[in-house]
Design goal:
The protein has 338 residues and is α/β, with parallel strands linked by helices. It is built from 14 helices and 10 strands. A 5-stranded mixed β-sheet has the order 7-6-8-5-9. The chain has a 3-stranded antiparallel β-sheet with strand order 3-10-4, sandwiched between helices. It has a two-stranded parallel ribbon with strand order 1-2. α4 crosses α13. The longest helix is centred in the first third of the chain and has 23 residues.
């Protein structure tokens, strides 16, 4: 009898094991995830795929972009499935009823990663007021670098009418240093890898930085369409979880190993681009575990837009903009990054 009970118990355990395995391998609602990349760098979905976290989902690259608002607009128009932008730009878009939801932070400012607004060493520009009548290079309008310059001007008592004298020039990040050195602009926005390469060559100095103004913070978030989340709940959760794990891997892995991994990804994808800048990578810039979004990451920009009379007081609150329900790190779940 004892042997029979043991055999039955073992059979039951095996059956339950197969059932659990079957559930774990239950097909997701979609197979491909469309996204836009960035020249010479690696975006998180690419790292997640390389590390094996994304499978069975497959990343489908549809081109590159240098603009957060454009990246999110591509999601809104269903040209891509995931895209990211500066949180201030997301507040504006969602306040205007863009049918998307922020699901995970993907870039930001920490002790090693931040953006500066640089002038040449011999530039007469020393203060915010010296920017009047000058040109500032940045990747796009209405996003991170745009907001930071406006905040710098306001904090230094440059009023709205005076601020109109500062010209913002859209410049691809990879040519920002060149535009500054060739006197096409008087100030250029340089961050992370591109900043460190420029500083290594010398001859420039920071006028101010985003970290000077706001300290460490998650600056931008990836979004998914509301309908995509509703129609593909399992795929949405798997996608965000994979990206969160990739972010946490990069946050906790020694920088030389991360750089080596990025270089191999860039080489393998064969887009005729240089991976030289990767040697300057220092950190993710994301201060929160697994890219978890915090109310304060969005509230600061809601307050700013209210002050600028772009949104009305009480029109929107952080909870309207994001969800952490898809991110396993938000609930304290222990997800192995390695």
């Amino acid at each position: 009898m004892r042997q029979l009970f043991k055999r039955l118990t073992t059979a039951t355990a095996v059956a339950l094991g197969f059932a659990a395995s079957a559930l774990a391998q239950e097909p997701l609602e979609v197979t491909d995830i469309r996204y836009q990349g960035s020249v010479g760098t690696v975006v998180w979905i690419e790292l997640a795929d390389h590390l094996g976290y994304l499978a069975p989902l497959k990343p489908k690259w549809v081109g590159n972009t240098i603009s957060g608002p454009q990246d999110v607009q591509a999601v809104v128009s269903n040209d891509t499935d995931i895209g990211g932008a500066f949180n201030g730009a997301l507040v504006k878009l969602i306040a205007k009823k863009a049918p998307v939801k922020a699901v995970i932070g993907y870039y930001g400012v920490d002790d090693n990663t931040w953006s500066g607004y640089y002038v040449k060493n011999d530039s007469p520009i020393k203060t915010a007021r010296d920017l009047l009548g000058k040109k500032v290079a940045m990747n796009t309008l209405g996003a991170h670098h745009d907001f930071i310059v406006r905040e710098y001007l306001e904090r230094n008592q440059v009023n709205d009418e005076e601020a109109k004298q500062v010209t913002f020039v859209i410049t691809p990040p990879v040519t920002g240093e060149q535009a500054l050195r060739q006197n096409q602009v008087e100030v250029s926005t340089l961050g992370g890898i591109l900043r460190d390469k420029a500083l290594e060559r010398g001859g420039i100095r920071p006028l101010f930085t985003d970290r000077d103004l706001f300290g460490n913070f998650t600056a931008g978030s990836y979004v998914l369409r509301n309908k995509f989340i509703e129609q593909n709940p399992k795929a949405s959760k798997h996608l965000v979880s994979a990206i969160a794990r990739a972010i946490e891997w990069a946050r906790t892995t020694p920088a030389p190993q991360v750089r080596s991994t990025f270089e191999s990804i860039i080489k393998a994808r064969g887009r005729a681009e240089s991976a030289d800048a990767i040697q300057y990578w220092k950190s993710t810039g994301i201060p929160s575990t697994g890219g978890v979004v915090l109310d304060k990451d969005l509230q600061v920009w809601i307050d700013w837009l209210v002050k600028e009379q772009i949104v009305k007081p009480g029109q929107i609150k952080p909870a309207d903009l994001y969800t952490n329900a898809l991110n396993p790190y938000a609930t304290g779940a222990k997800v192995a990054a390695k």
